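Today's session is about reading a structure prediction critically. Students often jump straight to the picture, but the first step is always the sequence itself: look for stretches that repeat, for charged clusters, for runs of hydrophobic residues. Only then move on to the predicted structure, which in these notes is written as discrete structure tokens rather than atom positions. Here is the chain we will use throughout the hour.
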Amino acid sequence: MSVLKKPSELIEDLISHWVSWDEHEAFYLTKLAPDLATNPESGDETERAILRQLRHQLNENEWRELPQLIAESRAGIFREIERERLQREIYERAKQAADRIASQKKDEEAIERNRLEQARKQREEQRTSILRKLHDRFQSDFLGADDFFSASCADIITEQEFEAEKLSFVKDWIAANTLSENGSKQLPDDEQVAAMGAVHGHVQVIARAGSGKTTTLVNRAFFLLKHCRIAHTEILILTFNRKAASDVRRKLLTVIANGADAAICAEFDRRMNDAGKRRRINTDEIEVSAIDTVAARLDIRLPHVMTFHSLAYAIVHPEESLLYNGDGDESQSLSRVVQQVIDDQRQKPAFQGKIRELMLAHFREDWDRIVEGRHDQSKEEFLQFRRSLPRKSMRGEYVKSHGEKIIADFFLSTTLPTSTSAIIGGVASTITSTSRFLLHQTAA
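Below is the predicted structure for this chain, in token form.
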């Protein structure tokens, strides 16, 4: 059983049947619709079927207004189509904007990833470069590595990374430069390496007996001597007893020179054989002597290794004699040594100007006094200057009046003896005083 459609639905079917609205909308509304309303049978089969149903449901007025109803329905459909079209455009614009934002965001993310990757590569290159420079600094100037890190590396690598690189360098250096014992090489652990590589400040090592404290101390001294190029005279190693001091010297000589331990043993055996007929044999002294002999033979200068008591004794009783200047001419040892040092340094062009400047500064005050007293001028200029002084005679003695100066200068110019000049000077002083008294009485 077919369901009857509403007039609005039938009109929409008729409008849908006319498919060329974009090209023939005016024809449909002004020509075809009125003709079909006047003669429904003039249309095609679909149009006739739709119009028959509409004729049964519409009254006369509505039928006459069928073209108007079609136009109004078409306008409603057009508005709906337009609304849908606008919605589609809005959706498309929104989709395009979203796609554009997503694409822009994707591009920005790609740019940011590229920037981060470039920054990471740059940091990695900087880090690799600074680590290479740091390793070169460890190799050439280990003592200045800390200052180099603070000045050039602190913003690229952390202090922990710096310490790790330094410990790794020291460990590799110890492994490459120390000799193996019994075919195997015992490498130091990280704490021992930290003690060996700590060249600034104070370091306290606390460990149990037999843990390698002496070996750490010896390797530290060896590292300072050979790699850091510290002079042997600038290193002092103190122990509590002579046996420990001898042990340190022997181990240090062993790590410095290959075969030194065998040479020490041979020298020790030879000295023991030489001392075999003695009643008392001090093996510690023989070992110390053997170590010194082997070191001298190998031309190796060891640091100062001694006990605390030996250091105190050396301070209180120095081997060198004290330099001082005595009262006699023969006890001017300090002046002679200082003069010898000055003479030696004056032979070097780099020190000639400095020594001259120091000597001039020392004697400048004396020279100023000479110039002030006109002692640098000729005899005539000097005497003329002395004559011009109001309160000083030509001899340089102070006078009380101008008359006393005239008398003193007169006797000096006549080359009288000193005693006579002194007597005359006193008489002149008396005459001057008497003259002042008489002038005072006359004025009164």
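Discussion point for the tutorial: The first strand starts at residue 236 and ends at 239.
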